[in-house]
Amino acid sequence: MSEIQATNYYIAQASKIIDLGPHVEQLLLTPEAEHIVSVPIERDNGELAVFSGYRVQHNSARGPMKGGLRFHPTVEIDEVRALASLMTWKTALVGIPYGGAKGGIAVDPKTLSKGELERLTRKFVQRIGSVIGPQRDIPAPDMGSDAQVMAWIMDEYSRLHGFAPAVVTGKPLEVFGSAGREAATGRGVIFVMLDTLHDLKIPVKGARVAVQGFGNVGSWAAHFAHSEGAKVVAVSDVSGAVFRADGLDIPTLMERAKQRLPLADYRAEGVDHRASDDVLWADVDVLIPAALGGIFDAANATRVRAKVIIEAANAPTSPEADEIFARRGITVIPDILANAGGVTVSYFEWVQNIQSFRWTEAEIDGRLRETLSGGYRTVAQMAKQKDLTWRTAAFVVALGRVARATLLRGL
Ligand code: GLU
């Protein structure tokens, strides 16, 4: 099942529980607008290359639309639709005043020079510049894009429309970024993990954790899990997985990740090398998928041995896998709660930009913790009250909020 089918299944399931009816359900399933653009650039060797760019604006009932830009070869319209929809539910669930959107370019940024990446980014902004804006739709980083790309977006948009730092979040600190934004998604994942382990009465100190994916989100999640006293026993990237029963040296692995060194080349005492996917079947307390979506399906969900899955990735679990996890008593904290830390600090960045002031990292972290714990408690209550899984409860809360906003505003 594709990510859009899975996402729409979760929406339909929640819609039935709160009895939204087919018309409102249809409204909430359908994106408000979809923009598909060509993005031509001149390569360094003088040749022309044309890429496909996307921006799907899913829903604006609760505020300007918000969501990242993914630069990855597998980006296509259905994936962007699913990710845009998830942003609507994510922002509603943690109660920040945004709707949902997502975009991307089908490109492997590793094959581009810095100059090519800059030209690609600026051209994309020229193509979608009239449909984004600080009060309309605010992009941010996602897989394959980073703070530098956000700086170019701000610069290009400001050239076209006048100075507008709030048009994009996840910018570098030097150009209107926020303290704590880069680490925010990973930090939020671990805040949610702490609340979950506390409720399940699993001590954090010594809890065994495996992290799939060692990019921005996975590496920061591993870092914060480690600093909370958990034992990170397995991590993976595309090159392979590394295992160490007594816990990996996360500070060293973070350092290597900054230098983009593959895990497959890492050598240290007691470290075993395995295939990337083996991390998913590790015997751990907590499994954190933090890479692409579409990871768990009916065929492999029975192989997972973790007690808890914290979905740092967007859309990693198919409905069949979700059911298998529920039957097997595995607690799954869904993406729209688990990885909401990134967009939450994006919101703080946007607020700081609009008001031209700065919060400290301690203030940001405190507000992030408060926001995510609020979301966590709301989902916990809903799950208990209606006897639902965490995912269904999260969708019920989010859908209810967006549906009420939609009906109050009127068509
Ligand atoms: N790309 C991130 C996500 O999937 C962050 C989006 C944002 O900050 O707007 O939640």
CATH topology of the largest domain: Rossmann fold
Rg result: 20 Å
Shape assignment: globular
CATH architecture classification of the largest domain: 3-Layer(aba) Sandwich
Helix content: 40-55%
CATH superfamily of the largest domain: NAD(P)-binding Rossmann-like Domain
The succession of helices and strands, N to C, reads HHEEEHEHEHHEHEEHEEEHEHHHH
Bound molecules: glutamic acid
Strand order of the largest sheet: 9-8-7-6-10-11-12
Number of strands: 12
CATH class of the largest domain: Alpha Beta
Low-confidence runs of at least 5 consecutive residues: none
N-to-C terminal Cα separation, in Å? 32 Å
Report on the biggest sheet. 7 strands, mixed
Q: How does this model look, in words?
A:
Helices cover 45% and strands 17% of the residues. The chain contains 13 helices and 12 strands. Strands 9-8-7-6-10-11-12 form a 7-stranded mixed beta sheet, sandwiched between helices. With 411 residues, it is α/β, with parallel strands linked by helices. It starts with a helix and ends with a helix. It has 2 domains: 31-164, Rossmann fold; 184-338, NAD(P)-binding Rossmann-like Domain (Rossmann fold), CATH 3.40.50.720. The protein binds glutamic acid. Glutamic acid (GLU) is lined by residues 66-68, 140, 142, 169, 314, 339, 342-343, 346.
